[in-house]
């Protein structure tokens, strides 16, 4: 179903070339639930974004359902995009629309007519177990229900592949289990190929058939989940396996990693132990003449706080950006300026 051949993805920064995905080769079978695990910065998101054509490989080729996706354009590209859907950690729902309207949205865009659209939405609501909540707005739903809307919306156009980007990382353990069960159910009923990325080994163990372990942009270990569990070869894989057998204690300290990239407008925050992102961004925008937008973020909630990595784009007059960075430093939050 998916064939990734010699794929490399590099980003140009002022300090030189940053290779996010390095010489990856992978075949994912039709109907498989395939997991990619790695720590923050390993290259998982970049890999999954290339499957979705949100990024293009610098080198190599990606073929999905017989189409080499880097070579197609126009109507063929639109069709290919319909065949690959994605669900997200923070659901990405339309907040001003009801459950029904959220699920109907991709069908509207695809030009599916009123009666057919209604029939299809009813079917999807039933499939994901949201009967009775059709008229609710996302803000009235629990995290698990929001992700059910995300899944129904992703399935609206009958995709062949479902990409899951840390889809359960924002959910509590019980809700995580129910969403994972739903994914297995969908995989069995619809024969859908599922590719999921995560930093949590219990997610892999629960539902994946095979797993690839990523480190520094490359795949360092690959195999059936049971084999990898019984006989992990790489040190990093052993650490992930230990996560499940001996859960790590959550650190309570805030650790902010500081790396430096060439130009001054995108910052990356990596943090452990405390929720920093929302108050930080609110204060930045309130106090400085800048805009601050999250480009890409991964935040995992634990009982003692959150951890993860965020890319935030700061834009505005140079002096204001500098003042904002000073403010972030004064909050003892690590700043990585990445260009
Ligand atoms: P993961 O999903 O495993 O956390 P990512 O794919 O997000 O990893 O990132 C891999 C590496 O690529 C990181 O070092 C990150 O800083 C870098 N990276 C990702 N996107 C960009 C970008 N648009 N520009 C520059 N560097 C990037």
Describe it for me?
By secondary structure, the chain is of the alpha/beta class. It folds into two domains: 2-245, Rossmann fold, CATH 3.40.50; 266-337, ACT domain (Alpha-Beta Plaits, 2-Layer Sandwich), CATH 3.30.70.260. Helices cover 36% and strands 29% of the residues. It contains eleven helices and 14 strands. The protein has helices at residues 44-51, 74-83, 99-109, 114-127, 143-155, 173-190, 201-207, 225-230, 235-245, 277-287, 318-330; strands at residues 2-13, 16-28, 33-37, 59-64, 67-68, 84-88, 161-165, 193-198, 210-215, 218-224, 266-272, 291-302, 305-315, 336-337. The protein has a six-stranded mixed β-sheet with strand order 6-7-8-3-9-10, sandwiched between helices. Helix 6 links the parallel strand 7 (161-165) and strand 8 (193-198). Helix 3 runs parallel beside helix 5, helix 4 crosses helix 5 and helix 5 (143-155) runs parallel beside helix 6 (173-190). The longest helix is centred in the middle third of the chain and has 18 residues, at 173-190. It starts with a strand and ends with a strand. Mean pLDDT is 84; it is low at 247-264. The structure holds adenosine-5'-diphosphate (ADP).
Per-chain topology:
Blueprint: E1 2-13, E2 16-28, E3 33-37, H1 44-51, E4 59-64, E5 67-68, H2 74-83, E6 84-88, H3 99-109, H4 114-127, H5 143-155, E7 161-165, H6 173-190, E8 193-198, H7 201-207, E9 210-215, E10 218-224, H8 225-230, H9 235-245, E11 266-272, H10 277-287, E12 291-302, E13 305-315, H11 318-330, E14 336-337
Parallel strand pairs: 3-8, 3-9, 6-7, 7-8
Antiparallel strand pairs: 1-2, 1-4, 4-5, 9-10, 11-13, 11-14, 12-13
Helix pairs in contact: 3-4, 3-5, 4-5, 5-6
Bound molecules: adenosine-5'-diphosphate.
Adenosine-5'-diphosphate (ADP) is lined by residues 11, 13, 18, 20, 38, 40-46, 309, 338.
């Amino acid at each position: 179903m998916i064939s990734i051949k010699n794929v490399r993805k590099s980003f140009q920064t002022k300090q030189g070339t940053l290779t996010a995905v390095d010489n990856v080769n992978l075949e994912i079978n039709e109907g498989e639930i395939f997991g990619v695990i790695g720590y923050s910065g390993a290259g998982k998101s970049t890999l999954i974004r290339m499957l979705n054509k949100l990024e293009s490989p610098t080198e190599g080729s990606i073929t999905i359902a017989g189409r080499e996706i880097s070579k197609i354009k126009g109507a063929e590209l639109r069709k290919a995009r319909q065949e690959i859907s994605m669900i997200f950690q923070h659901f990405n729902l339309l907040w001003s629309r009801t459950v029904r309207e959220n699920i109907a949205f991709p069908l509207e865009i695809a030009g599916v007519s009123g009666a057919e659209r209604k029939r299809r939405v009813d079917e999807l609501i039933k499939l994901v177990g949201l009967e009775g909540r059709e008229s609710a707005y996302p803000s009235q739903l629990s995290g698990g229900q929001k992700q059910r809307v995300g899944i129904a919306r992703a399935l609206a156009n009958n995709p062949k592949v479902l990409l899951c980007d840390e889809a359960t990382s924002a959910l509590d353990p019980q809700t995580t289990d129910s969403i994972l069960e739903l994914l297995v159910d969908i995989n069995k009923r619809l024969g859908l190929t599922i590719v999921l990325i995560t930093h949590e080994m219990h997610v892999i163990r629960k539902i994946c058939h095979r797993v690839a372990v990523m480190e520094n942009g490359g795949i360092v270990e690959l195999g059936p989940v049971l084999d990898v569990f019984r006989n992990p070869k790489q040190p990093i894989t052993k650490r992930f396996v230990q996560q499940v057998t001996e859960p790590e204690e959550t650190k309570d300290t805030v650790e902010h990693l500081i790396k430096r990239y060439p130009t001054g407008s995108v910052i990356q925050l990596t943090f452990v132990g405390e929720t920093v992102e929302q108050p930080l961004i609110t204060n930045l925008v309130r106090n400085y003449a800048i805009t601050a937008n999250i480009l890409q973020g991964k935040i995992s909630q634990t009982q003692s706080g959150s951890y993860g990595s965020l890319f935030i784009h700061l834009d505005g007059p140079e002096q204001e950006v500098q003042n904002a960075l000073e403010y972030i430093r004064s909050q003892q939050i690590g700043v990585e300026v990445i260009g």
